[in-house]
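S.,

Sequence below, as promised.
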Amino acid sequence: MTTVLHSTRIEPAMLARIFGRQEVALLVCLMIVLAFFSFTADNFFSTRNITNVLGQASLALIAGIGCAVVFISGEVDISIGSLLAAIALPLIVIMNDTNSLALGIAGALAMGLIIGIINGYLTAYVGLNSLIVTLGMMFVLRGGVYLYTGQRAIPDDAALDSFIALSDGRLFNILPYAAVIAIILLVIFGYVMHHRSFGRQIYAIGGNPEVARLAGYNVRRVKFICFIISSLLATIAGIILAARVGSAQHTAGLNFEFQVVAATVLGGVSLAGGIGSLTGMALGVLILQFLSNGLRGLGLPTEWQLVITGMIIIAAVSFDELKRRRALGES
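The prediction came back faster than expected:
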């Protein structure tokens, strides 16, 4: 009996490691948000509201995976919001012309792939700053969408049941299919980032690209692939958004990139690269989504929701910088 008790006793150092993790702190924050609004906002903790929020959060979760991967590699991608609007054009146009969801999705993915290749090539191989490259791409895509659409929505005339199901369909009539897709992608990429060689290379390159290069890692190739991953995941989010609104809209994805970046940084993914997890990013997305939903339930004006979100972004970035300086000081 003594042996069993000794073997199962949790050491203080183990407790410190568990409760010192970023994800645990974020989970506690999420629980506090849920508890607060469950008492102050009507119907906040209902099954309908919770599942609706999960469906709304799915877009940021999916795109956030790619954003986090790029951040961890030491780069940034802020073109994803405009990409959501851009990929809806080939998606809707092809579906309207062919009445085929598969061809429409193929066209959208092809466009997302091209954008990812351009962003990755200019950053990884030409050596341009990723912030400047993706900022330029953000304006190019948004301007292109405005020009093509004439700032008018292109409706989904095909109205395919399979396409509509991406927005309205629910697993067991409870969980939106969009949330199911987000969870599956989160599990897959979480496994890759922490249990596969490619994921370890991303962390190493983000932490110190020169050391990673000397260790034999192909820094350019890895960063190039990260941008492709980001664009393809944003494309998936854009397909779901197009199904949700039933059209290709020039305003789709406006400020979406900042929502995703805010959630990613709040989730503990460092802007300096090499630090963070997809679990933390996901918790950051959920905190912001439930916070926004709860504030709306309290009748708080949108302006104040933006102010609070901005304050959270500043606090998260400041905390990230303090952690980085502390780590440098200890080293």
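Confidence is low (pLDDT under 50) at residues 1-20.

Coffee later?
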